[in-house]
Design a protein that fits this description.
Bound molecules: 2-succinylbenzoate, magnesium ion
Organism: freshwater metagenome
InterPro entries: Enolase-like_C_sf, Enolase-like_N, Enolase_C-like, Mandelate_racemase_C, Mandelate_racemase_N_dom, OSBS/NAAAR
Distance between the termini: 15 Å
Number of strands: 13
Mean pLDDT: 98
CATH class of the largest domain: Alpha Beta
Radius of gyration: 20 Å
Order of helices and strands: EEEHHHHEEHEHEHEHEHEHHEHEHE
GO molecular function, one term: racemase and epimerase activity
Strand order of the largest sheet: 5-6-7-8-9-10-11
Cofactor: a divalent metal cation
Strand content: 15-25%
EC number: 4.2.1.113
CATH superfamily of the largest domain: Enolase-like C-terminal domain
């Protein structure tokens, strides 16, 4: 395949309600969209999951755009004929920037699969047509507000609830929700908000039969997670710390994680995600698909990934309506707590170009030389 041009476009989508985590509050979702156009006549799309600010990870939206424009795209253009399977190796000299790398690899993969008439799901090795949906619930202003929000998600049909926690918002909200929903699969996510000295406090979560505690400590404190895992009975699940196949292998060997959250953006793309999935299957580590407030573009690919056999826990693969009143693709609508895996070629969703135009805050087309 030969790339003709790449469009980089930032859009801003309002959220249906603010989303608060231990690292900040989001009121809207600004994100970078990338479209590749090929000489063969196909188009490929991808979301860049980097947030506007480097609070969840070191990457951030305009930094991702900069590294793409300055280094990643010129390298890809210079290479000439390209396949998605070659992208990671080609971009390896540039350190880090997994989210930016994932964006270009995913868009190329979409264009490639569209040409071949193959869906993301069948390319990746999906073995089901529907995936179970979980929902990530932000830190609420009050316990009453949390109860109301969670009740709505239960009514919607979500099969697993994840509560965001931070110091001062942990035992009490978890206790209240567990009492309200004694049989609901329930887990928590701290986004690195605790430290090694919080072991006793985190042990307090063992009373609530949680599926897992996600990323309680600093992303670099893998040993700290291993020590914590030895002291609490609830499984520890790494998110931010897993940035590659190598880091997944190391964290498993250290017993720092017994469950893994795979986010394609965080690990450099769907191909690396597939390698981590295969490792986890081999190591008997359950995996689930994380989310980054993706639009329908990223959600489509995530739902396909989540339909692989090793994804045995419900992911943060919620319906479009969880975050957005209107999506930029045909919306993902949950039925009986599940989303259907798109079956069309590539990511298999239609882009609403008029709506994207309305949401656009900047756009730029780069022609391959
Ligand atoms: O840690 O999983 C996380 C959102 C943004 C950044 C990090 C995380 C999240 C979520 C929401 O928990 C996941 C989603 O539903 O998209
Ligand atoms: Mg997380």
């Amino acid at each position: 395949m030969k790339i003709k041009s790449v469009e980089l476009r930032t859009i801003n989508l309002p959220l249906v309600r603010p989303f608060r985590t231990s690292f900040g509050t989001q009121y809207d979702r600004s994100l970078l969209l990338l479209k590749v156009t090929t000489h063969e006549g196909s188009e490929g799309w991808a979301d860049c999951v980097a947030m506007v600010d480097p609070l969840y990870s070191p990457e951030y939206m305009s930094g991702a755009q900069d590294v793409l424009e300055r280094f990643l795209l010129p390298t890809i253009f210079h290479h000439g004929e390209i396949r998605a399977e070659d992208v990671a190796e080609l971009l390896k000299p540039f350190l880090g920037h997994q989210m930016a790398k994932a964006t270009i690899e995913t868009a190329i993969l979409d264009a490639q699969l569209k040409l071949e008439g193959v869906s993301f799901g069948s390319y990746l090795g999906s073995n089901k047509s529907k995936v179970d949906c979980g929902v990530s619930v932000g830190i609420a202003p009050t316990i009453d507000a949390l109860v109301e929000e969670v009740s709505q998600y239960v009514t919607d049909g979500y099969r697993r609830i994840k509560l965001k926690i931070e110091p001062g918002w942990d035992i009490e909200p978890v206790r209240v929700i567990r009492e309200m929903l004694p049989n609901m699969p329930l887990q928590v996510d701290a986004n690195q908000a605790y430290s090694r000295t919080d072991t006793e406090l985190l042990k307090g979560l063992d009373a609530f039969n949680l599926l897992l505690i996600e990323q309680p400590l600093d992303e670099h404190d893998v040993l700290g997670h291993a020590l914590l895992a030895a002291s609490v009975s609830t499984p520890i699940c790494l998110d931010e710390s897993i940035t590659s196949l190598q880091s997944a292998r190391d964290a498993i060997a250290m017993k720092a994680t017994t469950v893994i959250n795979i986010k394609p953006g965080r690990v450099g793309g769907y191909l690396e995600s597939l390698r981590i999935h295969d490792l986890c299957v081999e190591e008997n580590i359950p995996v689930w698909c994380g989310g980054m407030l993706e639009t329908g573009v990223g959600r489509a690919a995530n739902v396909a990934l989540a339909s692989l056999p090793g994804f045995t826990l419900p992911g943060d693969t919620s319906a479009s309506s969880r975050f957005f009143k209107r999506d930029i693709t045909n919306p993902f609508v949950m039925k009986d707590g599940q989303l259907s895996v798109p079956t069309g070629p590539g990511i298999g969703v239609e882009i609403d170009r008029d709506f994207i135009e309305e949401l656009t805050t900047s756009s730029k087309v780069i022609l391959a030389p």
